[in-house]
Here is the input.
Amino acid sequence: MRQEDLARLAGVSHSTVSLVEREHWQKLSLATVRAIAAALDIRVDVMGRWRGGDADRLLNRRHSLLAESVVAFLTALQGWIVEPEVSFAIYGERGVIDLLAWHGASGQLLAIELKTEFADVNELIGTLDRKVRLAGAVASSRG
Here is the structure.
C-alpha cells in the first residue's frame, strides 16, 4: 500500500503517514496513530509503566488481594519469611519478584509470580525463566 493510499484511508496527510513510517510517531497524537493503525487493521494498546512495574498491576485490587492471601498462607506456616515486590537488576536483567519467600530450616526458596489473568503466556514463561534463574542471587543479596 502506498503512503498516499494509507493517508486517505486514515483521514490524515501523506506527511503524517511518512512520520510514522520513519518511526517519528511520538510527535503525533495517540488518536492520529490509532487512526493510521486502524486503517491497517491494527489495534494500538498503551500500557503505563511505573518504576519497572506495570501500573495496572500496581492498581489492581485482585492482584493485591491475591498477594495478601499468599503471604497470609505462608506466614501461617512455621518458619517462612516473605518479602513482597523484591526488585532486582543483575547482569542487565531487571524485574520485580512479586513474593520472595525463604524457609531457613529447610533451605527452600520460593520466587512467586502472581497472576489474576493470563494475557500473554509467552511473556509469562520468559518472566518466570528470568526470575527462577536469578532468584538465588536476588535472595543472597538480601542476606
